[in-house]
């Protein structure tokens, strides 16, 4: 899993790439929590560009849960943008698509 | 023509991520389309890391592909553990009320066509299959 992050249009856009599973979920979670903290400091929205995520297991969902709890506590909105078909299916099965805003594109997440 | 993959590993050993990478490469070589392979890899990650945590001496994985159908058999000699006996998590709850974890086996059930558990010869045996 490779994590990159940029400030864009008043939001923080993070782009994890690769697979999020048992071996990478800890890094993913730590990176997410760091990004939530930076979004809180900047009073910015946190957009996760999911387009580079190959697939995500329940370990990744757990990391998202922890990040969302932290985000809710500091009034940060997390939006999941551009998930591929597999990631979208995982979000639907777990109904995480009801807990998070999910958009087709990063641009839509910036303006939603 | 069918293809077959078989490996054994000491449960809890550091070789788990190497085994997962090996399975992924094998699925690719066996001609499983990437999006379908991704779904299967989520299932292998859930099942194998779960067993690895629940202890036991050895786990073995056998995967067969024939006629665009994958059948995987995962056996471990740990204490009796039926992952399917676990209640389906309530996915209607808010974020604060959701249990951390518990979703793994739910994903396995939803992503595969069939999943079955049996305790056979003092071993846990989980068989799952999917047509792709």
List the topology elements.
The complex is a heterodimer of chains A (about 110) and B (about 130).
Chain A: E1 2-8, E2 11-20, H1 25-41, E3 45-49, E4 53-56, H2 58-73, E5 78-81, H3 85-93, H4 96-99, E6 101-103, H5 106-111
Parallel strand pairs in A: 2-3, 2-4, 3-5, 5-6
Antiparallel strand pairs in A: 1-2
Helix pairs in contact in A: 1-2
Chain B: E1 3-10, H1 16-29, H2 34-54, E2 58-66, E3 69-76, H3 104-111, E4 114-120, E5 123-131
Antiparallel strand pairs in B: 1-2, 2-3, 3-5, 4-5
Written description of the protein model:
- The complex is a heterodimer of chains A (112) and B (132).
- Chain A is globular.
- In chain A, strand 1 and strand 2 form a beta hairpin.
- In chain A, strands 1, 2, 3, 4, 5 and 6 form a six-stranded mixed beta sheet that branches.
- Chain A is 46% helix and 29% strand.
- Chain A has helices at residues 25-41, 58-73, 85-93, 96-99, 106-111; strands at residues 2-8, 11-20, 45-49, 53-56, 78-81, 101-103.
- Chain A has one domain: 2-Layer Sandwich (Transcription Regulator spoIIAA).
- Chain A is an alpha/beta fold and 112 residues long.
- Chain A is built from five helices and six strands, in the order E-E-H-E-E-H-E-H-H-E-H.
- Chain B is an alpha+beta fold.
- Chain B has one domain (3-131): Heat Shock Protein 90 (2-Layer Sandwich).
- Chain B is 33% helix and 31% strand.
- Chain B has helices spanning 16-29, 34-54, 104-111; strands spanning 3-10, 58-66, 69-76, 114-120, 123-131.
- Chain B has a five-stranded antiparallel beta sheet, covered by helices on one side.
- The radius of gyration of chain B is 15 Å and the shape is globular.
- The two termini of chain B are 16 Å apart.
- Chain A binds chain B through residues 19, 21-23, 54-59, 61-62, 65-66, 68-69, 72, 84-86, 89-90, 93-95, 99, and chain B through 16-17, 20, 35, 38-39, 41-42, 45-46, 48-49, 91-92, 94-96, 98, 100-101, 103-104, 106-107, 110-111.
- Chain A: It holds the Pfam family STAS.
- Chain A: InterPro entries: STAS_dom, STAS_dom_sf.
- Chain A: It comes from Rhizorhabdus histidinilytica.
